[in-house]
Design goal:
By secondary structure, this protein is an alpha/beta fold. The chain has nine helices and six strands.
Length: about 220
């Protein structure tokens, strides 16, 4: 056996050993559609902070989970599955006919792009809103949309109104996720705000990440 083959086998053993524990497999399932903080995971799975930290260390060592710092308060951390871990998660049931609402602070980039991409990829109704809407959709978001075949020219930021239980709510902004009283069935995608840099590549990266997350939800390519 070559060194590369031996290393690959050792990694497979590490992955299967990590997922052989029911609690760790439950953590993977919890992260299949949604990024969560350790506190959120602990509450949902009724785990102490120390026990959860142990399980997360094992999953991270096996290359199944990554930790990212909040783009809002910079203290909270969000956990996200790696691409290789997605194959082991319980499939997410996506109801294409269910309305989806994407939320971010200014409703001028991430949430607008997410709604447009969701409509094109999934086919269901999608909208977006913000807690402090900007005056217009950011020009670089419009340009990134054009490069991706999306037309945001007629979109306008709007304030969050009453969110009923018939909609699937997805927060794509850490600030909004941390400020609103989120429901248990909401999803959170911790996506960096491209407006911080205003570089075209940052907006293109948002488009790519949203496509990537929808790929996982729909069982498509990573």
């Amino acid at each position: 056996m070559t060194r590369a083959a031996s290393d690959a086998l050792a990694q497979r053993v590490k992955v299967h050993a990590a997922l052989g524990e029911p609690v760790r497999l439950a953590i993977v399932d919890e992260l299949a559609a949604c990024d969560r903080s350790p506190r959120e995971l602990g509450e949902r799975l009724d785990l102490s902070a120390s026990l959860l930290a142990h399980h997360l260390d094992v999953l991270a060592e096996a290359g199944l989970v990554t930790r990212g710092r909040s783009h809002a308060d910079r203290r909270r951390r969000y956990l996200r599955l790696t691409d290789s871990a997605q194959a082991f998660a319980q499939p997410v049931q996506v109801d294409a006919a269910r309305p989806v609402v994407f939320l971010c602070t200014h409703n001028s980039a991430r949430s607008q792009l997410a709604a447009a991409i969701w409509t094109r990829r999934v086919g269901g109704p999608a909208s977006s809103a913000g807690t402090a809407p900007a005056d217009r959709v950011h020009p670089e978001a419009v340009a990134a949309g054009q490069r991706a075949g999306l037309d945001l020219s007629g979109c306008r930021p709007r304030v969050i109104e009453r969110l009923d239980t018939t909609s699937q709510v997805v927060t794509v902004c850490d600030s909004v996720h941390e400020a609103l009283p989120v429901r248990d069935d909401w999803w959170h995608w911790s996506i960096a705000d491209p407006i911080v840099s205003e570089a075209p590549d940052a907006f293109d990266s948002v488009v790519h990440e949203i496509h990537h997350r929808i790929d996982h939800l729909m069982g498509g390519p990573s």
